[in-house]
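Reminder to self: tokens first, then the designed residues, so the page reads top to bottom the way the pipeline ran.
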């Protein structure tokens, strides 16, 4: 898995004995500054972008393959023992309302380099069926996090945050809430050269600017009813700069961005997950102590923990979900995401590139 944060690759080795999920090994490989910047540039129309897109797609396949080698070495497993790699790829466009989404990573090259079958392009079929193509992880959350009597919500705080609503009375639902870490990452990177605000410490040392928060919260996406999904196409540095007056202290902007990420999540829960009592956080944002504390204050009626307490590490859950999605594809199982993505019908998601 490699998400909108553009931080790197989360690789997991997962087994599914008797339909249980077993995490066997993990490996993280950071992208580094050059690849991150090249990917960021591809989010905008640019000269020679088709060639560059293919070039970076090949580079990603090599990185995914290296991550696979490291992962298998760690686990003492050889490629022949692995059924498939579920490879999400790196999103550079997500425009479901215009009928497309684009994840880079040359799956054919990854299959060639790794000697393992690859399942990729998980989102396109859902969009073809009228859905948002995102989020897809609610299908997996439904399988591993649902409780028969307790109304739970899982919140994955990646670049974008998305939630899964698991009410005992209803089928699974879920949607993207809004910016997660992405804008905070962009702002601290611009001002301090850091890739992210560790534990939210910089944000916690600033003051929320009420007028700026108000302008952030006017964003129509935040108030739109689900199904909805988002990405860097909307929540970019340009989006942020367009809302600044120019005289704000950078640290206060960071505090206000953290407040926005929390409000995007807590407003979504209060509006669309009424009665939820247990919240389980995952994704890199679950490490952001300032964010977690603030969420607790915004949602006093909920018990907020991380998925760690359910035996699912916050850093690996999304990657495990894509291993499971790959398994569903290999078994030709349809996924019913109608109540999540708004697709017209259940679909088999993903394309297979044989070993
Ligand atoms: N200790 C931490 N404190 C604050 N933020 C963190 C911490 N660790 C990770 N993060 C955030 O998590 C992000 C990565 O999260 P991830 O779940 O991989 O998102 P994505 O799926 O979008 O790639 C980082 O870019 C950073 O913003
Ligand atoms: Mg990531």
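Designed residues (355 positions):
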């Amino acid at each position: 898995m490699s998400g909108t944060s553009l931080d790197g690759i989360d690789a997991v080795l997962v087994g599914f004995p008797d339909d249980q999920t077993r995490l066997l090994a993990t490996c993280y490989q950071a992208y580094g500054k050059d690849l991150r910047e090249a990917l960021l540039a591809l989010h905008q129309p640019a000269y020679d972008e088709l060639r560059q897109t293919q070039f970076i797609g090949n580079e990603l396949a090599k990185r995914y393959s290296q991550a696979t080698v490291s992962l298998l070495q760690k686990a003492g497993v050889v490629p022949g023992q692995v059924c498939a790699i579920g490879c999400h790829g790196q999103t550079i466009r997500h425009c479901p309302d215009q009928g497309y989404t684009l994840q880079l990573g040359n799956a054919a090259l990854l299959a060639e380099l790794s000697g393992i079958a690859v399942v990729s392009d998980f989102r396109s079929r859902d969009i073809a069926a009228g859905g948002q193509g995102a989020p897809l992880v609610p299908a997996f959350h439904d399988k591993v996090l649902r409780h028969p009597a307790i109304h739970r919500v899982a919140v994955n705080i990646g670049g974008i945050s998305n939630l899964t609503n698991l009410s005992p009375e209803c089928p699974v639902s879920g949607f993207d809430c809004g910016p997660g870490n992405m804008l905070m990452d962009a702002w601290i990177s611009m001002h301090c050269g850091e890739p992210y605000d560790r534990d939210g410490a910089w944000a916690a040392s600033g003051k929320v600017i009420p007028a700026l928060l108000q302008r952030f919260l006017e964003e129509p996406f935040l108030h739109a009813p689900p199904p909805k999904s988002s990405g860097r196409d909307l929540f970019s540095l340009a989006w942020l700069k367009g809302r600044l007056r120019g005289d704000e202290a950078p640290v206060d902007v960071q505090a206000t961005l953290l407040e926005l990420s929390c409000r995007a999540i807590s407003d979504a829960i209060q509006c669309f997950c009424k009665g939820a009592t247990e919240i389980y956080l995952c994704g890199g944002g679950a490490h952001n102590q300032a964010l977690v504390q603030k969420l607790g204050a915004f949602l006093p009626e909920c018990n907020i923990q991380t998925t760690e307490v359910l035996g699912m590490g916050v850093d690996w859950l999304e990657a495990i979900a894509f291993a499971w999605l790959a398994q569903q594809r290999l078994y030709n199982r349809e996924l019913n995401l109608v109540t999540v993505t708004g697709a017209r019908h259940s679909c088999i998601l993903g394309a297979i590139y044989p070993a």
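Residues 95 and 101 are 6 Å apart (CA to CA).
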